Amino acid sequence: MSTSNDNFTAWAGVQRGKPFTKMELKLKEWDADSIELNITHCGLCASDVHALDEDWFPSDFPCVFGHEIVGTVTRIGENVKHLKVGDRAGVGAQSGSCHQCEACLDGQPNLCLEDYLYTFGSRWPNGDKTYGGFADKWRGDHRFTFKVPDDMTSEIAATFFCAGITTFAPLRRANIIPGESVVGIMGIGGLGHFAVQFAKALGAKVIGISHNESKRDIALELGCDDYISVNDKESFDKYNNGLTHILCTGTSSDFAWHTYFALLKINGHFINVFSPTWDLPGMNSFTLFNKQIKVYASKIGTPKEMEDMLAFAAENKIKPWITTYKMDDVNKAIEDFRAGKARFRFVLEN
Ligand SMILES: NC(=O)c1ccc[n+]([C@@H]2O[C@H](COP(=O)([O-])OP(=O)(O)OC[C@H]3O[C@@H](n4cnc5c(N)ncnc54)[C@H](OP(=O)(O)O)[C@@H]3O)[C@@H](O)[C@H]2O)c1
Ligand SMILES: [Zn+2]
Ligand SMILES: [Zn+2]
User: Fold this and answer.
1) CB neighbours of residue 102 within 10 Å
2) Which stretches make up the Enoyl reductase (ER) domain (predicted)?
3) What are phi and psi of 76, to 5 degrees?
4) Which of 196, 193, 143, 188 is nearest to 307 (CA)?
5) Which of 130, 244, 253, 254 would disulfide-bridge 181, Cβ 3.0–4.6 Å?
6) What's the rounded Cα separation, in Å, for the pair 155 and 175?
């Protein structure tokens, strides 16, 4: 039985590509695994905009986007042991899983094969919708919520829950060797600016790879050791067979595999987290075999990796570059995001 108010106020998407509308909606049904937050902050990710625009698949409107959520715990179900009322907690792009498939049993619910619940646009087992963070409250499953480190402010913490984990997890798994690995980060945006900092903190030499010549100075300021401008052949030639890893967080639709495989050393890694609206192009098999390149992907991260990331970020002073907007100005934030003004993440604040 619910003892709190089951309604909440959200800035909801109501139609493809259209501005958000402020409205009252109903939280999911309360149960023993539930936890409720008063949202203080929520980051804005490119995936929110893709979902609003229905770039990948239809959205279940009204849909409350936002999946870099931080708030204060206001209520916990009887199964919740890792957080208490008054704690600061966060939730990212995943809010639920089946808990019994091979992936879930292996501690990788981010790859759940049966019932992966996105923080917005999915349905809880009873049919209630999952709602995200452009709102005043969030209610969901405690198993996808994490304590915010004490020495991290909430506005800073928010963006770790998607951009942070999505870049930390694959870099952490990629066997980066301090002083030896040379890691290229494609796309210096919300995810990319975290990736640069994580790769650097893991001990790699870091090369920013960007379409935007004007980001050179800012990439170096972020911690890149050097910079490849996509339209400058000379800067590519300098790193021919020179990188051990590439992490792709964004590129343009004229992307060609061979251009980036040429940058990799033998047995190099090409790791993709970018999710464009277009299909990745075909690749020539010889460009793949000749250097035995490993091409693979990564989806957010596991709960364990989320905890490791928060600790690593706090310890290594990883700091997102953010601009805050009032939650009521979410439509302005989306407009500015579409205009490419984010340097590098926008955070909505209640
Ligand atoms: N795998 C996952 O689990 C996961 C999780 C979260 C997000 N994502 C996906 O990751 C991607 C990045 O998200 P984000 O929030 O970091 O986005 P973002 O802030 O917009 O950054 C993406 C960067 O990619 C480059 N880029 C993107 N589209 C381009 C184009 N058409 N032409 C030229 N350059 C382009 C730009 O960098 P430069 O100007 O420096 O080239 C841009 O700054 C999105 O596709 C998102 O859906 C995946
Ligand atoms: Zn995201
Ligand atoms: Zn599962």
Assistant:
1) 11
2) 13-348
3) -130, 145
4) 143
5) 244
6) 31
**pLDDT > 60? residue 3:** no
Name the β-bridge partners of 112: none
Question: Ligand 2 is a single-atom ion; what residues have CB below 5 A from it?
Answer: 45, 47, 162
For the chain, the straight-line distance linking the first and the last C-alpha, in angstroms and rounded, comes to 28
Distance CA 285, CA 273 (A): 22
User: Is residue 250 in contact with ligand 1, taking CB distance under 6 Å?
Assistant: yes
Q: What is the DSSP letter of 117?
A: E
Res 4: pLDDT: 54
DSSP conformational letter for 143: G
Is there an atom of ligand 1 within 6 Å of 40 CB? no
Check pLDDT > 90 for residue 28: yes
211 Cβ below 6 A of ligand 1: yes
Amino acid making up residue 18: K
Distance CA 14, CA 232 (A): 42
Q: Is the pLDDT of residue 341 over 50?
A: yes
Task: Taking residues 289-306, report their average pLDDT.
Answer: 98
Q: Which residues are CB-neighbours of 190 under 8 A, at least 6 positions away? A: 43, 45, 46, 159, 163, 342, 344, 345
Q: Using a 6 Å cutoff on CB, does residue 111 contact ligand 1?
A: no
Task: Give CA 88 to chain center in angstroms.
Answer: 19
Domains and CATH numbers, the chain: 7-162+301-349 (3.90.180.10), 164-297 (3.40.50.720)
**Residue 257 burial (C-beta neighbours within 10 Å; 0-12, 13-18, 19+):** middle
* Residue of 42, 47, 193, 299 with the most ligand 1 atoms within 8 Å of its CB, for mutation: 47
